[in-house]
Amino acid sequence: MTANEKAKAKTDQAVGAAKKTAGRAVGNERLTAEGRAQQMKGDARQAKEKTKDIGKH
Q1: Does residue 16 have a pLDDT over 60?
Q2: Are residues 6 and 46 in contact, defined by beta-carbon separation less than 8 angstroms?
Q3: Would you say 42 and 16 are in contact if contact means Cβ atoms under 8 Å apart?
Q4: Residue 2 φ then ψ, to 5°
Q5: For 1-57, where are the alpha helices, taking DSSP H only?
Q6: I need a labelling partner for 4 at 20 to 30 A (CA). Which of 30, 42, 48, 50 fits?
Q7: Can you state the angle between helices 29-56 and 3-26, rounded to 10 degrees?
Q8: pTM for the whole thing?
């Protein structure tokens, strides 16, 4: 996993989790959904990079 892509994945996961938590705290369903989507985007990016790494070995 390249360092840049790994950082982007972790950032998406962290920001998404924060948005999701904030959305739940204030009762904002849209913010919760945005956070969940961003977190999933980070998870997908991380999985893609891990798959690339496995293919290299």
Answers
A1: yes
A2: yes
A3: yes
A4: -70, 150
A5: 3-26, 29-56
A6: 30
A7: 160
A8: 0.83
